[in-house]
Backbone:
C-alpha cells in the first residue's frame, strides 16, 4: 500500500500518518518527492481493510494498493493450473475444452431428455439447466424447483452426462447438492457472500459467474470467499459485462481469459449465450473463446427455441450446436487442446 | 410489445409470428412499412416473459417492450406519493426530508453511543449502522453480528432515534427484525431475489439500495419483488452507479430522483457517502439531493473517521455533519420542504 | 510515479529499471516490501510520457502516477478561482450564477429573435445557439452556417445579450470569432487537439464540454491544451457522461462540480438539457447544479419545441424557463450566490 | 419509427400527433393497446431527425426507431462484402487476413527501417506508424510530422510494404495523402465530422477506428459520413471500448466482428494492441480475432519497447511478433482464411 499525501502536507502531518502506520504494526517508508510525499507501507498486509481506515486522515490524498488483495486464488499461492476432476476422463482445467450445454430452464421431461440426448450426441460432457431461475421480474417463470432438479438428474444419468445447475439461496445448497455435480452461482449472486460461504463448505465444485459490473479483482475476491472456507474447486465463468453498448445483451469480455489465467490458477469457462444474448453470435464468440484459451464453454441449447420459456433468442438448435462443435474442434487442435 | 421483423421477412414469416402471438392469447396488429414490418401485440401482457420467447424465431429482428414491466411500484397503479409512517411525527415520503446518520459499522458501545448522541443533537431522526457487513474481501471486518444489533438498538433507544440496518441473508430477517425499524438491502443484494421475497413477508419497511449497474427498470422490478409479496413499504435509495470514472468511488446519479419520482410513487433517499466515497464531496452531494427533491439522506458519521474499521474516508465528523444539516435547512425551505 | 515490479523480480531486474530511471534524469527510490518491490521516481516529471515508456520492461508489473498530469489548470498552479470577465457586470466564475440559454440550432430569424427576447426577459445573460451542428447522421440538419451566426449576433445585439456558439473545425475559428463572445467546444471534439490548439491562440474565452466518456483527468488535460497555447480563459462544462443507463440521454455527473473545483481554478458550467435529454428533468437538474456550486447553466429554450429541427424533447418553453429561473434564485441565495 | 404515447393520452392528443406526422409527409398507423397507444410512422424516413422533433410534444412518452439510421454502410444497400484492393495481391476484406504492423510513433530512421524489415520478414503487408500523434497531454511527444511521414514512406518502399498512418486535422489530408496508402482516423476523431467529410472526398481508403464509447450505430454512422461524400473504401477498426474495468487499457469488444459484419458489408480490422494495452494480451486477443472472422489486424511492434516514446507497454518485439503470426496461420487455416 502506498499512501499519497496532499500537496501541502507538512512534516508533522507525515509524521502523524507514519506513527499510525507503525501503531498498526507495519513499517512506514517515506519518499519525499519534488511536489508530493508518498509513504510505502511494508509488512504482511493481512489487515488490508484496517489500513484503509487511514483514509479518514484529511492530510492524505489517496491510497494506492500495490499487492493483489486475494491470496488463495492467486498465482503467488499456487502457480500450476488447477484441474477439477469430475470423473476419470472429465477434468476441467486440463487439456480438454469441456462443453456444458442444455436449456436455460428445465421446462419438462420431454424437453430436457431431448436436449440431453442431442448435446451428448454432439459431444458435450455436462448437462446444464436451471431449476431455480433468477428473473428480473417476479411475474416471470421462476423454474420448476426440485421437480426440475429431478428431471435434470434423470436426463443426465440416462445419457451419461454430468450435471451443472444454479443455486440461489444458501438454504438450498444441501437440496441442490443432491442432484448436481457442479454448483453454479449466477452473476447476480456473485457477491451474495452468505451463499459463497455456504458453498465454501460444500463438497462439490462451484462455477462462479462474473457479476455484471464486477472488476477482475472483485471477481477473484468472490472466488476467494469460497476458497477461504475450504472449497478449492472453483471455476471462473465470464458471461459478459454491462457497458454502454446495448445492441448485444452484454459485452463479452474475451480478453478476461488470458487476464484471469495470468492472475489466477483457476479454470476459466466462457458463456457465449448470455455473453451475447443472440444465437447468431454464439458461434463466433465460442470460436474466439477456444482460440484464446478457455477451459470450457457453457452454451444454451433448446430443441425448439421459439417456444422456450426463457432465453429463446440466445439458444441454439441441436443441429446448429452439433456443427459448431465440429468447427471448434479444428480451433482446439491448432491451439494444442482437445474438444 | 412491438415485434420488428427482419428486412427480408416474407408474408409467410409474418403470418407464422402472428399465429404464434394469437396462440398465446393476444391480438397481433401488423404495420407494413416501406422496408420493415412491425407487429404490435395487444392484450393484457401479464405473461411478458412468455412473449419474449418469441425471440427464438429467426425471422424476428428484435422485440421492443412498450409497457413498463412493473405494476405495483408504478404511477399507473398508484398516483399519490407513498408515505411511510415510522411514528406520529416521522414520515418518509412526506414534507420532511428525513436524515439517517451513523457509522458504516458498529464497532463498539462507546462509538455507537457517541455517534447516536451527536447525530441526534444535529437533527437526524434515524440511526444507521451495520452489524452484518458485505465486504469485498473475506478477510475484512465482517461486523459484530447480533452483538452489534443490540448496541445499535440500545443507542437508538437512549437517544429516541429510529433504527435502520442491513440484512444480507434471508435466514437473518427474523433476527434483524427484532432490533431494527427499517430493513436495509445493500446494493450487492438488490437482485438477491430470495432475500427480497422474504422481506416481502416482513412487517417492517425496507430501504432498497440500487445495484451498482442496475437500470431504473431493474431497480423498480426489485422493489416490485418485495411489493408483490405484500410489503408495500419500500424506500428506494440511490447510492451511486459504476461508470468508467473512478476518481470518485461511484458516480452518484442525482437525476434518478426526478426520474424515479416520475415513474414510481415510492419515496427516494440519497446516500451521498457511498455515492461519492469522499467526505469532502458529501456536503455538496447532499445539497444537490435536497434541491432535487430527495425524501431523505443517509450519511455516514463517525466520531473519529481516521480510526474507523471501514469507510473512514467517506465519513463526516459530528461537527461537520451538524453544520451541513444547518446548510441543508435553507435549501429544504426554499424547496418547500422541512428538514 | 511509482513503478511496481513483478512479484518475482530479482535484484538485477530492479537494478536495470533503476538505471534506466537515472539515465532519464530522475532519482530512483526503491522500497523492498514483503512480496513486492516498488520504485518511486523523484524529480521534475515534465517528461511524463517518456517515463511511461518504461512500460516496455517485462519485469515491471505496472506504473502508478502520483502527480496530477496537468499544470496550468490545477490548483497547485493557481489557487484562486478564475474569473472570466465578459463585461463590467458579467463575470463567469464570480458570485453570479450565469445563465446561457437559447435554442439548440438557429433555425431562422423569427425563431432566434423570439427566443432571445424571451430568455433576456427571464434573466439570462448569454444567448446560445448552434450554427454549425455536430450531428450523428450526415443526413440530419447541419445548421445554417455563417447565415446562422449573423442571425444569432443580431438577436443578441438587439437584446443586449452576449453570444456563445460552437466551433467544430479549426479552419472556422476566425469566422466564428467574428460573431461570438465565447467559443463552445462540443463533447465530441473535446480531444480534437488541433481545434484546441487553434483556440489556444484565440482572444476569446472557450467553454469546453466534457467528452462522453472523458475522465476528469482527460477533461482537465484538454483544457490544458488550450491554456498551454496561451488562452487562459477556459470554462469547463459538464453535460452528462455515457453509462449503461439509457433511460436518460446521458448520466449527468453533478458531483463533477465540487470535484473539478477541488482540482482546478476554472469555472464550471452545467448543461442540464443535454445532461438529461428530457425537458421534464431539466428543472430538477438545474436546481441541483446551483445548490452544488455551479458557476453557470446552459439551457435549451425553444419557442415551439414540438417543431424544433433538433433536440425538441429537451427544450423548455419560454414560460417554463422563466419560472425555473425564479425557483433557482431562491437556491442561489441560500447558497451565497446571485442569479 | 414508433411513437409511444403517454399512458393517459386522450384521443385528441393522438390526433394531434397523427396530424403532425401527416403534415411531415408520412402516414400514421395507430394501434390502440390495452394501456398504451402507439403510432407507427410509415414512409421513406429520410428526414429522420425532423421526425425526432416530435419529441417536443408533451403527450409523447418516447419514440422508438425501427429502421437502422444508416444507408450506404448497411447490408440493405449492398449485401456482398466490400473488398478494398491495395494491389493485385493485397485485398482487405478478401480471403487473406491482412496484417498491419509497426511502431506506435515513428521516432527516427533507424527505428522505422528496422521495424519495417522485421514486420515484412514476419509476414505483414502494411507498415503502420504515427507521424501526427493524438496525445492526452500537450506536453507529450506529438510525433515527427511530415519528417516522420517521409521516413515511413521510405521504409515501406524499401521493404515493399504499403503504408497506413493517422490524419488528425482536415487541413492535413492532402499532405498525409502524399505519403500513405490508407488514411487512419483515430478513436478520438471518430466523430470529427469535418475530418470525415474531407476524407469522403479523398481517393484513398480510410480505416476508421471506433470511438471509446461509440455504439455500433454511431460507429456505422461515422462511416456513413465518409461514404456519403463519395469515398466507399472504408475499413472499420475495433480498438477497445471504455468500460468500468480498468485493469486493461480498454475492453476489446471482439463480438463486434460478427455484429458489424451482420450489419454492414465493410471489412473489419481488430487492434489488439490498443484494445488491451498490454503486450502479454496481444497474442491471445489476435488469435480470438482471427477465429472470429476479422479481416485484418493492426499490431504495434517496436524493436526496443522499453525505449519507445509511446505505448511501449503494448508493443511486441519482432521475434514475438513473428512467432505470433505463425500461430495465427493455423487458426486462419481452420477458419477458411489465409494469413
Residues:
Amino acid at each position: 500500500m502506498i499512501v499519497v499525501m496532499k500537496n501541502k502536507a507538512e512534516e508533522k502531518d507525515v509524521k502523524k500518518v507514519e506513527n499510525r502506520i507503525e501503531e498498526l504494526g507495519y513499517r512506514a517508508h517515506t519518499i519525499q518527492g519534488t511536489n508530493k510525499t508518498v509513504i510505502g507501507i511494508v509488512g504482511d498486509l493481512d489487515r488490508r481493510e484496517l489500513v484503509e481506515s487511514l483514509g479518514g486522515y484529511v492530510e492524505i490524498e489517496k491510497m494506492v494498493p500495490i499487492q493483489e488483495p486475494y491470496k488463495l486464488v492467486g498465482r503467488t499461492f499456487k502457480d500450476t493450473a488447477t484441474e477439477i476432476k469430475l470423473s476419470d476422463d472429465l477434468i476441467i482445467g486440463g487439456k480438454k475444452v469441456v462443453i456444458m450445454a442444455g436449456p436455460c430452464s428445465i421446462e419438462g421431461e420431454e424437453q430436457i431428455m431431448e436436449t440431453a440426448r442431442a448435446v451428448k450426441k454432439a459431444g458435450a460432457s455436462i448437462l446444464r439447466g436451471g431449476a431455480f431461475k433468477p428473473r428480473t421480474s417476479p411475474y416471470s417463470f421462476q423454474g420448476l424447483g426440485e421437480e426440475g432438479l429431478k428431471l435434470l438428474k434423470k436426463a443426465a444419468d440416462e445419457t451419461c452426462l454430468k450435471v451443472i445447475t444454479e443455486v440461489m439461496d444458501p438454504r438450498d445448497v444441501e437440496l441442490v447438492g443432491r442432484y448436481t455435480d457442479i454448483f453454479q452461482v449466477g452473476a447476480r449472486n456473485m457477491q451474495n457472500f452468505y451463499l459463497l460461504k455456504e458453498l465454501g463448505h460444500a463438497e462439490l465444485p462451484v462455477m462462479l459467474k462474473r457479476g455484471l459490473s464486477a472488476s477482475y479483482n472483485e471477481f477473484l475476491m468472490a472466488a476467494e470467499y469460497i476458497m477461504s472456507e475450504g472449497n478449492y474447486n472453483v471455476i471462473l465463468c465470464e458471461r459478459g459485462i454491462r457497458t454502454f453498448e446495448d445492441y448485444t445483451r452484454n459485452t463479452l469480455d474475451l480478453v478476461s481469459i488470458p487476464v484471469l489465467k495470468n492472475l489466477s490458477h483457476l479454470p476459466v469457462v466462457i458463456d457465449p449465450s448470455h455473453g451475447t444474448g443472440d444465437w447468431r453470435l454464439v458461434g463466433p464468440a465460442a470460436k474466439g473463446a477456444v482460440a484464446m484459451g478457455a477451459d470450457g464453454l457453457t452454451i444454451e441449447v433448446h430443441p425448439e427455441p421459439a417456444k422456450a420459456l426463457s432465453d429463446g433468442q440466445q439458444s441454439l438448435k441441436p443441429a446448429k450446436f452439433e456443427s459448431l462443435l465440429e468447427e471448434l474442434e479444428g480451433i482446439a487442435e491448432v491451439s494444442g487442446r482437445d474438444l
